[in-house]
């Protein structure tokens, strides 16, 4: 069986598309901020606090990764944080994935 060029399809999720990263980063950051602003019953770390912080971090990483070439202002602190996050993006991604699994399994369990 010969594979022709017409048989090759585009991936369903455009993971290398900067527009996809921009939209996903905005959604992650906004949902994390809104989750922090929502009222919380008690202190639920795995159900509320860690997923919200993970969403904000993931959104910042995606937005900074897309826009780092287009930055025109000098923001040394922001640039240092963004660069450090992008250097360790695989490790941070694994931590964020672990937080999402913990959130799924231990959503209503308080830490104390």
The tally of helices reads 4
N-C termini distance? 61 Å
**Major sheet attributes:** none
Q: What is the 3D form?
A: globular
β-strand percent reads under 5%
Using only C-alpha atoms, the radius of gyration works out to 18 Å
Helix amount: 55-70%
Low-confidence stretches: none
Number of domains as seen in the coordinates? 1
Structural class by helix and strand composition: mainly alpha
Average predicted local confidence, pLDDT: 79
| Strand segment tally | 0
Order of helices and strands: HHHH
Polypeptide structure, described:
The chain has 112 residues and is mostly helical. It has one domain (18-105). It has 4 helices and no strands. Helix 1 (18-37) runs antiparallel to helix 2 (45-67) and helix 2 runs antiparallel to helix 4. The radius of gyration is 18 Å and the shape is globular. The protein starts with 17 loop residues before the first helix and ends in a 7-residue tail after the last helix.
Please provide a brief summary of the model.
The protein has 112 residues and is mostly helical.
List the helices and strands and how they pair.
Elements: H1 18-37, H2 45-67, H3 76-87, H4 89-105
């Amino acid at each position: 069986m010969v594979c022709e060029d017409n048989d090759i399809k585009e991936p369903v999720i455009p993971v290398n598309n900067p527009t996809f990263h921009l939209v996903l980063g905005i959604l992650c950051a906004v949902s994390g901020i809104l989750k922090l602003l929502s009222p919380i019953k008690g202190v639920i770390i795995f159900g509320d606090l860690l997923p919200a912080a993970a969403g904000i971090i993931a959104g910042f990483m995606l937005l900074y990764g897309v826009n780092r070439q287009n930055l025109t202002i000098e923001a040394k602190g922001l640039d240092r944080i963004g660069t450090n996050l992008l250097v360790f993006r695989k490790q941070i991604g694994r931590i964020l994935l672990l937080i999402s699994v913990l959130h799924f399994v231990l959503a209503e369990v308080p830490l104390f």
